[in-house]
Amino acid sequence: MVLLKVLRLVLGYSIVAISFITSPRKAKRPPAQQAHINQLAEDLTLYQFYACPFCVKVRRALRRLNMPVATINAQQPEHKAELLEGGGRVKVPCLKIVENGSTQWLYESKAIVEYLEKRCA
Ligand SMILES: N[C@@H](CCC(=O)N[C@@H](CS)C(=O)NCC(=O)O)C(=O)O
């Protein structure tokens, strides 16, 4: 059990390191367009674990799309509780979307990346 945890940590941090070295380029846009994306990003919060490979995938997409979405460490007890209460389970990545007064909790890295790409298109 402990060995599995250590292995998972080593793998997670290796992926973080590789991702850092191979960081994608940020999209470049005219200032007005970027301001629009920045505004869209204010409605979004990414609940994540730093060394989770699926979270790395979403963070890379955010960088590539140049979308400054706030990230929250879901390992901290108060944020873990928010995620459980709002989304229904402690699974990351999870994107909290606040739109027109309603809140949606989107799980699954693939669905999150697709949603972000659609919002930036
Ligand atoms: N298919 C999911 C996998 C996400 C996943 O397995 N996340 C792990 C952390 S790396 C987790 O939150 N596990 C807790 C759980 O599934 O309850 C995705 O692509 O987002």
From TrEMBL:
Annotated GST N-terminal domain residues: 42-121
InterPro entries: GLR_AS, Glutathione_S-Trfase_N, Thioredoxin-like_sf
UniProt xrefs under Pfam families: GST_N_3 (PF13417)
Official protein name in the record: Glutathione S-transferase N-terminal domain-containing protein
